[in-house]
Design brief:
Length: 171
């Protein structure tokens, strides 16, 4: 009986050590992740943004949603179509403001319900506003603290532009 228990304990320890080694070796060479989106270097979409990151500073949950508008421009000599706009968290939504002033969206986090395709053509020399809305109440009391969220625009050619918002959320 004693040798059987010893074999079981040894087997469990061996499995735990094996899983640890496997998990550790699998983490080498990965990139950092913030709220479900892996931070990567944006590939050339042709679009440019004069500002790609914005820090709201300290915001209070009791004051509700905050919004930031980013401007993206097509400086190339060809039209660019933005196929998708995705956010890194369900607490963040994005809209693309068309030339006529109408907003298309909301665009949200992949895998969290239906997200319509953007399919917005930006002609050479034109710009569009990307309106980013953050809801500090989306995570409830667990959402207090520093946040870092991303909005990724992907063009028809597969290139991306990434916009970032930050804030320190207080009750």
């Amino acid at each position: 009986m004693e040798s059987k228990t010893g074999i079981i304990v040894f087997s469990v320890v061996l499995v735990v050590v094996g899983l640890f080694v496997l998990g550790y070796s699998g983490e080498q060479g990965t990139t950092a992740s913030v709220q479900g989106v892996t931070a990567t270097t944006a590939s050339a979409s042709g679009l440019t943004a004069s500002e790609t990151s914005y820090d709201f500073g300290t915001i209070s949950m009791k004051n509700g949603n905050v919004m930031k508008e980013f401007t993206v421009t097509n400086p190339t000599d060809k039209d660019i179509t933005v196929r998708t706009i995705l956010t890194s968290c369900m607490c963040t939504t994005a809209f693309i403001v068309q030339q006529n002033g109408n907003a298309k969206g909301p665009f949200g986090m992949e895998g969290m319900g239906y997200i319509p395709p953007a399919n917005e053509r930006i002609a050479s020399g034109e710009s569009r506003i990307i309106r980013v809305v953050y809801d500090p109440n989306a995570h409830g009391p667990a959402g207090i603290g520093q946040i870092d969220r991303f909005v990724t625009l992907t063009s028809a050619s597969g290139g991306t532009v990434q916009l970032e918002i930050k804030a320190l959320v207080t009750p």
